[in-house]
């Protein structure tokens, strides 16, 4: 392959345009150069040598020294909160001691009132259930027998560091390590067995944990064929892509509501029992939220927090002003189909504040109940309505 060959010229042009250097100048098989080494930059390798073929190969062997330093990528620690029974009780006690009435009365704007509530909740969470590394939480959940074995292993390890040639200590360390591994495996198998016996969602949760997919966004290629590797660059590229699909609608400020003689919804009612019931039925998850208030906190302290949350919801609706943080959300890019490196093949999922979602649920439920009561929906309408899915549509059509 040379400049007289079309493919050869294409390769030469590519290397020239991209400043790629080809090092091998000697024959690697008989009188031909069939083995090539490309680098960018040129000094990436040094002292290359061509020697006799290896094993049964008829190609000469190429050896060289890599002129590069490899840096071990340190795995970032995962932090989470341990919502065990003891910690949750401490959280309830702390939140119960807060004067929520005073917190609401000392601030004047809706935004300040809401921020004051969430700041106190985050402080309570950090005090009662501080963030810990995931490994530490797992270790703390082990039974007493395993913890004793871990302590013994650590003690022997420390003694062995002081006296590394002690064969007796080496034997003890191997024995205790084997015993500890056996007990941890037995403990994990028992936990899996207990989870399977629970059935239902517990099994699905276990499967998701065991076969957790890599959620990292791969390298992305923009429209100008530029490869984006840095995480910040990928975020900017996805943000620009998603913004193309977002259209800011302008509403007519002089809009006049249509006059009708039909019954209309005067107000949305917020009562403590309704709010408490919704909080109690929230997912038992340490979910993310822009205001750092997870579902599990609201669920665990539903009885204590429901009066305060009801009050702030009432204030938000009466003042017709939502907290500023409710306008923020975490955007999660979800890959749909096609090329995984194309940002256009991702769809944004918006994760809003947990209390905002509770607020929306109460309003949407009351609006739908009102529309059902006034028979607003047609009997022929299916989809996006409770008990009126596309499946029930097919069944009703078959019955007819």
Word description of this protein:
The protein is mostly helical and 400 residues long. Among the domains are: 6-66, no CATH class; 142-212, no CATH class. It is 49% helix and 9% strand. It contains 14 helices and ten strands. It has helices at residues 6-17, 85-96, 100-105, 110-128, 134-140, 144-162, 167-198, 201-210, 231-245, 272-280, 295-300, 302-319, 354-373, 390-399, and strands at residues 21-22, 38-39, 45-51, 61-66, 79-80, 132-133, 220-221, 227-228, 330-335, 346-351. The strands form five sheets. The protein has a two-stranded antiparallel ribbon with strand order 1-2. Strands 3-4 form a two-stranded antiparallel ribbon. The protein has a two-stranded antiparallel sheet with strand order 5-6. A hairpin with a 5-residue loop joins strand 7 (220-221) and strand 8 (227-228). Helix 10 crosses helix 12 (302-319). The N and C termini lie far apart (74 Å).
Show unreliable segments.
none
Structural class: mainly alpha
Helix content: 40-55%
Mean pLDDT: 86
Main sheet attributes: strand count, strand direction, barrel closure: 2 strands, antiparallel
Architecture blueprint of SSEs:
Blueprint lengths: L5 H12 L3 E2 L15 E2 L5 E7 L9 E6 L12 E2 L4 H12 L3 H6 L4 H19 L3 E2 H7 L3 H19 L4 H32 L2 H10 L9 E2 L5 E2 L2 H15 L26 H9 L14 H6 L1 H18 L10 E6 L10 E6 L2 H20 L16 H10 L1
Antiparallel strand pairs: 1-2, 3-4, 5-6, 7-8, 9-10
Helix pairs in contact: 2-4, 6-7, 7-8, 10-12
Protein name: Reverse transcriptase domain-containing protein
């Amino acid at each position: 392959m040379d400049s007289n060959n079309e493919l050869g010229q294409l390769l030469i042009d590519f290397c020239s345009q991209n400043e790629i250097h080809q090092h091998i100048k000697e024959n690697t098989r008989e009188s031909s150069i069939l083995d090539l080494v490309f680098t960018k930059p040129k000094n990436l390798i040094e002292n290359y040598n061509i020697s006799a073929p290896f094993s049964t190969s008829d190609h000469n062997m190429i050896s060289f020294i890599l002129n590069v330093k490899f840096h071990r990528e340190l795995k970032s620690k995962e932090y989470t909160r341990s919502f065990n029974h003891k910690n949750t009780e401490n959280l309830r006690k702390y939140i119960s001691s807060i004067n929520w009435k005073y917190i609401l009365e000392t601030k004047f704007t809706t935004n300040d009132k809401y921020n004051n509530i969430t700041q106190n909740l985050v402080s309570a969470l950090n005090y009662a259930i501080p963030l810990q590394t995931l490994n530490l939480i797992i270790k703390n959940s082990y039974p007493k027998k395993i913890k004793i074995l871990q302590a013994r292993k650590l003690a022997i390890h420390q003694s062995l560091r002081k006296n590394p040639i002690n064969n007796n200590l080496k034997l003890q360390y191997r024995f205790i390590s084997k015993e500890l591994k056996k007990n941890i495996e037995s403990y994990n198998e028992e936990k899996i067995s207990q989870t399977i016996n629970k059935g239902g969602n517990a099994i699905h949760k276990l499967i998701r944990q065991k076969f957790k997919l890599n959620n990292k966004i791969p390298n992305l290629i923009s429209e100008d064929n530029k490869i984006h590797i840095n995480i910040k660059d990928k975020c900017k590229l996805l943000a620009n892509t998603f913004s193309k699909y977002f259209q800011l609608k302008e509403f007519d400020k002089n809009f006049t509501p249509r006059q009708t003689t039909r019954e209309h919804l005067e107000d949305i009612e917020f009562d403590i029992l309704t709010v408490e019931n919704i909080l109690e039925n929230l997912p038992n998850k340490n979910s993310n939220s822009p205001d750092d208030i997870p579902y599990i906190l609201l669920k665990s302290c539903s009885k204590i927090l429901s009066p305060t949350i009801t009050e702030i919801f009432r204030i938000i609706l009466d003042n017709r002003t939502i907290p500023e943080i409710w306008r923020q959300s975490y955007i999660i890019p979800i890959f749909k189909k096609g090329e995984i490196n194309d940002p256009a093949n991702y769809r944004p999922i918006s994760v809003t504040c947990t209390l905002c979602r509770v607020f929306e649920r109460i309003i949407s439920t009351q609006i739908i109940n009102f529309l059902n009561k006034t028979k607003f929906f047609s009997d022929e309408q299916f989809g996006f309505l409770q008990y009126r899915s596309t499946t029930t549509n097919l069944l009703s059509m078959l019955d007819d």
